[in-house]
Amino acid sequence: MKLILSQVRPTDGDIEGAFRHVAMLFDLARAVEADVVLLPELFWPGYNRPDLHEELAQPLDGPWVRQLQAMARDAGCALVTGMAERAGADLYNTALAIGADGGLLARYRKIQLFGPMERAVFRPGDDLPPVFALGGRKVGLLICYDIEFAGHAAGLAARGAETILVPTANPVGFEHVQDTLVAARAVENAITVAYANYCGTEAGLAFGGGSVVVGADGRVLARAGTREAMLIVDLPGCADYPQEILSTQRQDYRAL
């Protein structure tokens, strides 16, 4: 499964610019025959903009999602992205997986809300992180702070996920997450983890970049620096690793 991970500056309310960026990524996906594009957390309408979350959040059948579904279908490439989701009077920090046919593969509402802003604006999700088929394998979703809790990744692996895709918005000062914890989650569960962060600043909040893709053996497959970057990675599946090693990793961790 070939992934394009986009480390980009935050949207900061520029919805048209966000769609232009996705169009560019889908053009690249056609050229390199990618299976899925991964974007950061709350790409629509921006992360550190609680004013815009309340003003602009949309339901899953709203114009943002409909346009993204049409774009994915036209490109023949799946998309995983974060957005502010409105459900009645409630707002959720949501990750969507849209298939190459434009269908909605999965929705995940962030469980582990981080910091005062998120907790003031969003409700935590009630459902387990999803596992779904994408690019010939089983994939799970988490969002940012979720990956720091070992049980979420372990639960996805226990339900058969081979890969976890993680839209994130990790600030400067928390680089231990992409430098250490992402690799720990990967090797604990013998699972590939792709972690897509922002760079630059938004409304006074600086992001650390460092987006990373880590294989099931804990090795870094690709890593971004602190500027805008695109990582194009052929993600290995479980069949690409010695089965005795993966089996030992999973059994040893789950026995603790």
TrEMBL record:
Signal peptide: none annotated. InterPro entries: Aliph_Amidase/BUP, C-N_Hydrolase, C-N_Hydrolase_sf, RamA-like. Residues 1-237 form the CN hydrolase domain. It comes from the Bacteria. GO terms for molecular function: hydrolase activity, acting on carbon-nitrogen (but not peptide) bonds, in linear amides. Keywords: Hydrolase. Pfam families: CN_hydrolase (PF00795). PANTHER family: BETA-UREIDOPROPIONASE, NITRILASE C965.09-RELATED. This is Nitrilase. It comes from Paenirhodobacter enshiensis. The lineage of its organism: Bacteria, Pseudomonadati, Pseudomonadota, Alphaproteobacteria, Rhodobacterales.
